[in-house]
Amino acid sequence: MSKLEDNTYGSWISPITSNLIVSETVRLGQVVLDNESIYWTEGRPREGGRNVIVRCTTGGERTDVTPETFNIRSRVHEYGGGAFTIVNKTIYFSNYLDNQIYQQEIGADPVAITSGSNRRYADFVIDEKQNRLICVVEDHSNINQNEPKNSLMSLNLADGKTQDIAFGNDFYASPCLSRDGSHLAWLTWNHPNMPWENTELWVGTLNEYGTIDQPKQIAGGHNESIFQPKWSPDHKLYYVSDRNGWWNLYYLQNGQTKPLFEMEAEFGLPQWVFGMSTYGFASAEKLICTYTQDGVWYLADVQTKTQKLKKIKTDYTSIESVQVDAQTAVFIGGSPSQFPSVVKLNLNTQFPYIIRRSCNVELQPEYLSTSQTIKFPTANGLISYAFFYPPKNDYQIASESELPPLIVISHGGPTSATSNTLNLNLQYWTSRGFAVLDVNYGGSTGYGRTYRERLNNQWGIVDVEDCINGAKFLVDQRQVDSNRIAIKGRSAGGYTTLCALAYHDFFKAGTSYYGIGNLETLVTDTHKFESRYLDGLIGKYPEKMEVYQNRSPIHAIDLLNCPIIIFQGLEDKVVPPNQAEAMVRALKSKNIPVAYVSFDEEGHGFRKSENIKRALDAELFFYGSVFGFKPADSLVPVEIFNLPM
Q1: Phi and psi (nearest 5°) for 238?
Q2: pLDDT of amino acid 2
Q3: What are phi and psi of 417, to 5 degrees?
Q4: Residues of the chain whose pLDDT is less than 70?
Q5: Is the alpha carbon torsion for 219, 221, 223, 226 positive or negative?
Q6: Which CATH superfamily is domain 31-280 in?
Q7: Are residues 87 and 128 in contact, defined by beta-carbon separation less than 8 angstroms?
Q8: In Å, how far are 28, 523, 539 from 547, measured between CA atoms?
Q9: How far apart are CA 282 and CA 325, in angstroms?
Q10: CA dist., res. 644 & res. 626, Å (int)
Q11: Could you state, in order of their start, the residue ranges of all structural domains in the chain?
């Protein structure tokens, strides 16, 4: 293809199409090791978003384990995670279609080992000594309770009998069995805390009846978040704590908590889902871990006796789901030039081998925009962080007098973070002539507890200011067109988007994916896990009702003055569709340009290929309509109400 002159930004021809994205991409999830085989989950848009367990043997043979009628996914906390485990070629998993636990021998059909329709399960641990499964259970059977009951449960694998072994608190996670089966560690917390705010680490002795004797809290409980307790081969309990302001590694010795070492880096993650892992043991003396600094993840070897950390050189800047045995480390790794992949690293040679890529598309570098890490000044004399992607398509160029439109992305959570891993959904925009700014606003993780706490009582303010100031930073550098700046976000990022449009006259368009328009509706009509989340982000309700109302975009429709497109799943339990529909009705009545695209059988996040494609193309059509360019793609139009002809 020859270069084309004076082709307007946004209208560039790109091979990164929505069809390509949905047909060639899978979501890689939880990794588990067993008997030298490697297992992981794949979320497949082409199969209606179904999650499948995949196995790779030592010989490199890769096969699906899960029959076609099963979907490996948990609904505990609605976000799930930790949906399966494997011991000696026997798999135990949660089936999303009926919420039951199934047992499956490799090569055989799964068999349900629970019954009933009102319980959900996650975070499985097999207690071989007592022939049982231990897990988190969320019980919805008591309709007279305002909330489901959460506990740690044991399930006898011989007779199917169950019993709660830790209960009484609002939430439980991360049951962890010592190597000899004598002790159990777990995490627990209560409303209004979230697991990245205050959690408690408990340990108890397991008696002959399988119940817990002498339970004892050993860490956490006051402005301390604990992550991933894990027993070492020499029976020491390790865990991650942010007691010094950073999620660092600690261990328990003679009843005393000791730091493995301390540094300004994060070895932990916000526990939105179960089954997260950032470290594991190759031996009692050798721990393999991942940590992040300034938004970039690193792999490291830690000698537990000398407490020395040494980086393992890799090309990966995003690393998750770390699993370790004596010879290998397996993780999901990605970088600005590599899609997320299941990677096997030989610990002796430190040679990485890619087992499975999330996307097998081979794209020419001429179409790929490489991220630039930027730090920019923001409110109150502070610094915030983002990844900037300039437009990139060597076969398409625009007039020298034109600057590119900018899409500012506010990530979800809001207690979460974005990474610079190669992402086709983002390259879809840059290869068409858009610049993209992916913001890790104040409140994001990976920059220490103080940075994370910038959002306390300030949600809808600090995050919005950072998105605006990041865009202004690029405008001042003449890298983007100040008259064509859009903001977009999903879930909590959708709330940031709507707040930015309602309370500031800066952005020229906005895209909300299942975003929050009414904080009062959210706090009174959401699921248990997040029902008190806003206590820290906004304030306690109803005591702070006025604040909730003042920060709800639904009450600021009169201030909106630019076009908006809203996407919503009609089975969303996290952000119910009535919020999106109320926003759309209000925008229509105020004669503000608005488009609304809803999807049946989609929840919080779109999983079906046809819906992912439709949303991506509808968003491009919308930008073309409001920014005045004609996309090169053949797109199905979306109805935009109140748009001037």
Answers
A1: -105, 160
A2: 45
A3: -160, 155
A4: 1-6, 143-144
A5: positive
A6: YVTN repeat-like/Quinoprotein amine dehydrogenase (2.130.10.10)
A7: yes
A8: 39, 13, 8
A9: 5
A10: 9
A11: 31-280, 281-360, 369-627
The phi and psi torsions of 153 (rounded to 5 degrees) equal: -125, 145
Q: Regarding beta strands 226-231 and 237-241, do their DSSP bridges make them parallel or antiparallel, or are they unpaired? A: antiparallel
Which two tokens mark 447? 């920059």
DSSP states of 592-639 as a string? Answer: --EEEEEETT-BSB--SHHHHHHHHHHHHHHHHHHHT---SS------
CATH code, residues 369-627: 3.40.50.1820
Beta partners for residue 438, in sequence order: 387, 409
Burial state string for 31-40 with b = 16 or more CB within 10 A and e = fewer than 16? bbbbeebbbb
**What pLDDT, on the 0 to 100 scale, is given for residue 6?**
52
The residue type found at 618 is A
Please count the CA atoms within 13 angstroms of the CA of 328 that sit on its side-chain side: 19
Q: Is 582 helix (H, G, I), strand (E, B) or coil?
A: helix
The CA angle 44-83-57, to the nearest 5 degrees, is 70
Q: State the pTM of this model.
A: 0.94
Those residues whose C-beta lies under 8 Å from the C-beta of residue 105, and which sit 6 or more positions away, are 89, 90, 91
**DSSP string across 92-116:** EEEBTTT--EEEEETTS--EE----
* Cα 137 to Cα 148: distance, rounded to the nearest angstrom: 10
**CB count, 10 Å around CB of 183?**
18
Query: Which of 538, 495, 500 has the alpha carbon at shortest distance from 513?
Result: 495
Burial of 17 (0-12, 13-18, 19+ CB in 10 A): middle
> What is the per-residue pLDDT for 144?
67
CA-based R_g, the chain, Å: 24
Pairing of strands 149-156, 62-64: unpaired
d(C-alpha 200, C-alpha 205), whole Å: 17
Residue 256's DSSP bridge partners are: 253
Instruction: Tell me the HSE value of 365 on the side-chain side, using a 13 A CA sphere.
Output: 4
Helices then strands, each counted (H, E), the chain = 10, 36
Q: 5: buried, middle or exposed (CB in 10 Å: 19+, 13-18, 0-12)?
A: exposed
Name the residue among 216, 123, 128 with its Cα closest to residue 172.
123
Distance CA 251, CA 258 (A): 5
- With CA atoms as reference, report the closest residue to 622 among 612, 635, 605, 604: 635
How do 352-357 and 406-410 pair as beta strands?
unpaired
Token pair in block for residue 363: 């794209």
**3-state percent breakdown (helix, strand, coil) of the chain, nearest 5:** 20, 35, 45
- Return the pLDDT at 444: 98
The phi and psi torsions of 546 (rounded to 5 degrees) equal: -65, -40
Cβ proximity of 564 and 592 under 8 Å: yes
Q: Which helix (H) or strand (E) holds 522?
A: helix 519-524
Strands 90-94 and 84-87: antiparallel
Query: How many CB atoms are closer than 10 A to CB 416?
Result: 19
Contact 201, 226 (CB under 8 A): yes
Q: Can you give the pLDDT at residue 4?
A: 47
Q: Give one DSSP letter per residue of 216-268, joined into a string.
A: EEEEESSS--EEEEEE-TTS-EEEEE-TTSS-EEEEEETTEEEES---SSB--
Burial of 423 from C-beta contacts in 10 A (0-12 / 13-18 / 19+): buried
